[in-house]
From TrEMBL:
InterPro entries: Integrase_H2C2, RNaseH-like_sf, RNaseH_domain, RNaseH_sf. It comes from Cajanus cajan (Pigeon pea). Residues 40-177 form the RNase H type-1 domain. This is RNase H type-1 domain-containing protein. The lineage of its organism: Eukaryota, Viridiplantae, Streptophyta, Embryophyta, Tracheophyta. It comes from the Eukaryota.
Amino acid sequence: MIAWSIELSEFSIRYESRGPLKAQCLADFVAELTPASTETSQAWTLHVDGSSNSKGGGAGIILEGPNQVTLEQSLKFGFKATNNQAEYEALLAGLRLARDLGARRVNCNSDSKLMISSFDEFSVKHVPREQNARADLLSKLASTKKPGQHRTIIQETLHSPSLEDKIVNANDSEELGWMADIWSYLQEGTLPTDTDEVRRVRVRSAKFIIINGELFKRGISTPLLKCLTTSQATYVIKEIHQGICGMHTGARSMAARVLRAGYYWPTLKSDCQNYIQKCKECQ
């Protein structure tokens, strides 16, 4: 120690012992054991009503928040809607307004019942029409407003329905192509009637998984590969081969680039070979 003291003395360095840690222990105790404050957000009250007639459709929205905040909105539909559809559109428009204002708990008074997962707590209560007169008046106001007429109530126009009509195609299996059997087995547990096909589908499906409505292929040394249909595969080959960052490479090189990009389909190598044979610049 004396030798080290002599060596360090020329640098003006001296040893100072560490002081007591009693105060720090108390601070750590308070920081670790203080319970987290639980703040409960105040509930908002939503009154909605929809109206549809020969002149058009509309929705009335009244949103009552904390601190006596009240917002009124009259919404006009730019499309034809039935009375039931007008009720649903009014409810969805009111929920969107509440979400934009940061409401997390909403109590809705309406003729329609719908649960929206965007809110922590949501309840729909059926009320008589006489208790929902204000929202009913706003809904009729939007459908009967004349052009150029000025009003103090905020009015907007909804140009398209919130949910577009989806046509169910009976030939979905044809669109899935090679993925149809695998998809049906993983999603619904459906198997073909042929015994040999049943075993083949089960063995093959063990290499695939469905995530968020999309089919992926498991890899041993590679991440999950997104499975593509025939049309999607054609687009990917075209972009990789002659896109903005494309290079006119060989079939094996292009197939490897497709896999590195995270895509898969069973005829990958043969499709790459056929595409290169048809490419004029590669001949």
